[in-house]
Amino acid sequence: MAKKLVIKVTAGADAPERCSQAFTVAAVAVASGVEVSLWLTGESSWFALPGRAAEFELPHAAPLPDLIESITAAGQITLCTQCAARREITEKDVIEGVRIAGAQVFVSEVMADDVQSLVY
After folding, report:
1. DSSP of 47-99, one letter per residue?
2. CATH of the domain at 19
3. pTM value?
4. Total tally of structural domains belonging to the chain
5. What angle do CA 41, 12, 24 make, to 5 degrees?
6. Which residue segment(s) compose the domain that 79 sits in?
7. InterPro entries recorded for this chain (predicted)?
8. Any bridge partners for residue 101, and if so which?
């Protein structure tokens, strides 16, 4: 079993099922004791901002704020540098527990030993 799971989520409210699935898988992995790194890119970038996850709704899905809270409690959430810049999001704008980092950090994470990666 992989020691770390890196998940890149590109979908947001534009593709709610893919978005929810990424956050759900990340939260379940954290609860299972797996080290998780969840990357917010594209439309999912907006969920790095306070209050935005509370606006997300999907029937029969766990509330996004709860999933984010469980992921940040024991995992890492990263907002893509370029995605943040395109949306004029800065470090001071994001919720606690979210960092902003770029492709070099992503590549180093996915290329490490004992890592599985998923893209949603």
Report:
1. GGSTTTGGG---TTS--HHHHHHHHHHHSEEEEEHHHHHHTT--TTTSPTTEE
2. 3.40.1260.10
3. 0.95
4. 1
5. 90
6. 4-119
7. DsrEFH-like, Sulphur_relay_DsrE/F-like
8. 80
Q: How far apart are CA 68 and CA 110, in angstroms?
A: 21
Residue appearing with tokens 């890119």: 41
Task: Quote the CA–CA distance of 2 and 88 in Å, as a whole number.
Answer: 35
Distances (CA, A) of 97 to 41, 71, 94, 104: 16, 9, 8, 20
Maximum CA pair distance of the chain?
Answer: 38
Across the range 22-38, mean pLDDT stands at 97
Q: How far apart are CA 17 and CA 14, in angstroms?
A: 9
| Per-residue pLDDT tens over the stretch 96-117 | 999 999 999 999 999 998 889 9
Q: What pLDDT, in 10s, does the model give residues 39-78? A: 999 999 999 999 999 999 999 999 999 999 999 999 999 9
Q: Which amino acid is at 43?
A: E
